[in-house]
TrEMBL record:
This is Glutaredoxin. Coiled coil: none annotated. SUPFAM superfamilies: Thioredoxin-like. PROSITE patterns: GLUTAREDOXIN_1 (PS00195), GLUTAREDOXIN_2 (PS51354). InterPro entries: GLR_AS, Glutaredoxin, Thioredoxin-like_sf. Residues 12-66 form the Glutaredoxin domain. Pfam families: Glutaredoxin.
């Protein structure tokens, strides 16, 4: 799994009417993490990118881009929320 110091960026694939996405957006708001939000209903090309990269159109999905160029596609809101909280806690410790 990616650790705090080797992550380049985080992006959330989501859409507005999805309750699982809403819960994850709330965690992003609470943790104040810098996560780019990519709405797959507003931009169909993002849905295509999600399927191509992650393997399926399910949202929420967190794209973790590492410094070495590796891309990790994390599905399941409970796993994403757990990851975000841990990442936020690590970031605070290192600050
Ligand atoms: N267990 C998943 C459920 C996610 C889910 O059902 N997302 C719906 C939108 S609310 C979805 O993407 N459905 C389309 C699909 O699975 O292909 C989670 O907690 O993230």
């Amino acid at each position: 799994m990616a650790t705090q110091h080797n992550i380049k960026s985080l992006s959330l694939y989501h859409f507005q009417g999805c309750p699982f996405c809403a819960a994850t957006r709330k965690v992003i708001e609470q943790t104040e993490l810098n996560v780019e939000q990519r709405d797959i209903q507003r931009q169909p090309q993002l849905r295509a990118a999600l399927i191509k990269g992650g393997g399926k159109p399910q949202v929420p999905c967190l794209l973790i881009e590492k410094e070495d160029g590796q891309h990790l596609w994390l599905y399941e809101s409970s796993d994403i929320n757990h990851f975000l909280r841990g990442y936020a806690a690590q970031s605070k410790k290192r600050a």
